[in-house]
Write a structure and sequence with these properties.
Layout: E1 7-10, E2 15-17, E3 20-28, E4 31-33, E5 36-43, E6 48-50, E7 53-60, E8 63-65, E9 68-75, E10 80-82, E11 85-93, E12 97-99, E13 102-104, H1 105-113, E14 129-133
Parallel strand pairs: 1-3, 2-4, 3-5, 4-6, 5-7, 6-8, 7-9, 8-10, 9-11, 10-12, 11-13, 11-14
Length: about 130
């Protein structure tokens, strides 16, 4: 039963100590002490994640202490992130707090593959996409 509409919810009263791997979408309102790997992650305002996050898409509203890898990342104004962030597309609401470095996934891969590439040539089609939401 491979359905793209399934999701799992971790309620606000739940504390999980250990890594989580989900093929479905994951909604976290509780506390996670471990790494998360899933297709899509939605984090509630009151939740805390202490560990690495790896997801195709992530919408973060709570506290994250760890690295984040997401193709599409939305950081809401209530989010507090401590850790490095790798993304393909990024949206950050005004008021969000991030202590760490941002790296566009494609750019990082290009730099690793072509260290002698000059920065004088600018290709608008290859620029990272950053959207600031008000």
């Amino acid at each position: 039963m491979a359905s793209g509409s399934t999701f799992s919810v971790i309620g606000p009263d739940v504390v999980i100590k250990g890594d989580i791997s989900a093929s479905a979408d994951l909604h976290v309102d509780g506390r996670i002490e471990g790494d998360i790997a899933c297709a899509s992650l939605v984090q509630g305002e009151g939740s805390t994640i202490e560990g690495a996050i790896k997801a195709d898409s992530a919408r973060l509203a709570g506290t994250v202490k760890g690295t984040i890898e997401a193709k599409e990342l939305v950081v809401l104004k209530s989010a507090r992130i401590e850790g490095d962030v790798n993304y393909d597309a990024l949206t950050i609401e005004q008021g969000a707090a991030v202590e760490g470095r941002f790296a566009h996934s494609e750019r990082r891969a290009q730099r690793a593959a072509e260290p002698a590439q000059t920065k004088s040539a600018k290709d608008d089609g290859e620029e990272p996409r950053l959207t600031l939401a008000g």
